[in-house]
């Protein structure tokens, strides 16, 4: 018997609050009216598999590989301790980004403060004692971050939607923009209905003085023991009067990035998922090379690689995503900023190259592949250096 059929036979079971909730009522009716809804479930833009054939045994072999030690840094990640004082002055150019680890980014767009996929929890898991644990602390306690006008959530996986973080932000009165159906989780967690805006792909809303649009992505939702057939995933476009951002959330490659760029771009920056990929789930996460290619098709000016360094979620070396991203970006002439977690920067003037992750990355064993390449500060590829006041 499958997990789905087993779970469906015990509707009286009250799932843990961390599992969230399924859509009901008008929220469910909206899901069923969506162009993405077919044969009882929300669908990807192209046919998609969660896992490739042979994944269980392949993942077991990867877990026992002699190179498994390389999935974590060997020393403390050099996080920059962000302070409220550094965020007190508005960005000189009207746009400032601060990568806080994994897919969490604070974007200051004009007078508005937007937090993408905020995760302050110690583990991305439904259980406090089990599941992937943070490899570095968040650069700033959430209580010190200051007011957040808008929280944008790409989908409901635990490394993007964190229950304690959501509850703390909700108490501040922040608005939440989430994909169709995901608001059911938030309401179960006591977020007021008036703070939640649910959007289908290509739907927009005016929130916190910004135009916020959900756009297609290739992924899936699930927080309990089975897939969430009626909760959508999305990438996001956030636009102010003078600046535009794209946040990929989690997505696999699909032939839709150029259309998103043509309709909603160009973008001052794209915040691209480039980590947690695997040959065992090739349809639902971008590789670093695909992330660079998607950035180009979107019409992005600067690429900020996200979704790496914070959690051990895939069988690749800890530093491999950024090394491969920089190599692909250099070959394509793409501008990349790779700050240490917690370093604020303005995309209009990204700082100079500094390969900070190499100091804490595990060295490959003799004879094993080494993804690192000599990377000069040349062309249009840049990374994090010592910015003024940091």
TrEMBL record:
InterPro entries: Metallo-B-lactamas, RibonucZ/Hydroxyglut_hydro. It comes from the Bacteria. Gene3D superfamilies: Ribonuclease Z/Hydroxyacylglutathione hydrolase-like. Residues 367-390 are annotated as: Disordered. Residues 113-308 form the Metallo-beta-lactamase domain. This is MBL fold metallo-hydrolase. It comes from Streptacidiphilus monticola.
């Amino acid at each position: 018997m499958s997990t789905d059929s087993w779970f469906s036979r015990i509707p009286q079971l009250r799932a843990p609050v961390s599992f969230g909730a399924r859509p009901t009522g008008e929220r469910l009716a909206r899901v069923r009216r969506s162009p993405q809804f077919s044969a009882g479930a929300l669908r990807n833009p192209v046919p998609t598999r969660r896992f490739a054939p042979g994944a269980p045994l392949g993942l077991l072999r990867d877990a026992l590989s002699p190179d498994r030690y390389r999935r974590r840094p060997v020393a403390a990640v050099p996080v920059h301790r962000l302070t409220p004082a550094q965020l007190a002055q508005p960005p000189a150019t009207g746009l400032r980004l601060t990568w806080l680890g994994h897919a969490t980014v604070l974007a200051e767009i004009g007078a508005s403060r937007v937090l993408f996929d905020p995760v302050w929890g110690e583990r991305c898991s439904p259980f406090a004692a089990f599941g992937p644990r943070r490899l570095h602390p968040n650069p700033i306690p959430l209580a010190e971050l200051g007011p957040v006008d808008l929280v944008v959530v790409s989908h409901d996986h635990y490394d993007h939607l964190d229950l304690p973080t959501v509850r703390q932000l909700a108490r501040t009165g922040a608005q939440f923009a989430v994909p169709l159906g995901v608001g059911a989780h938030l309401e179960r967690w006591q977020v007021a209905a008036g703070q939640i805006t649910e959007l289908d792909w290509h739907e927009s809303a005016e929130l916190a003085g910004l135009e916020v649009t959900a756009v297609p992505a290739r992924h899936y939702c699930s927080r309990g023991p089975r897939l969430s057939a009626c909760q959508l995933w999305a990438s996001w476009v956030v636009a102010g009067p003078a600046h535009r951002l794209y946040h990929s959330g989690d997505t696999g490659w699909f032939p839709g990035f150029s259309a998103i760029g043509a309709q909603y771009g160009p973008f001052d920056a794209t915040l691209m998922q480039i980590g947690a990929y695997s040959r065992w789930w090739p349809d639902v996460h971008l590789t670093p090379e695909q992330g660079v290619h998607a950035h180009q098709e979107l019409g992005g000016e600067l690429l900020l690689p996200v979704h790496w360094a914070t959690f051990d979620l895939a069988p690749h070396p800890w530093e491999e995503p950024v090394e491969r991203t920089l190599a692909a970006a250099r070959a394509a002439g793409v501008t990349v900023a790779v700050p240490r977690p917690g370093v604020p920067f303005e995309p209009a003037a990204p700082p100079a190259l500094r390969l900070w992750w190499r100091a804490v990355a595990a060295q490959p064993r003799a004879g094993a592949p080494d993804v690192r390449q000599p990377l000069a500060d040349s062309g249009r590829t840049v990374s994090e250096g010592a910015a003024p006041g940091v």
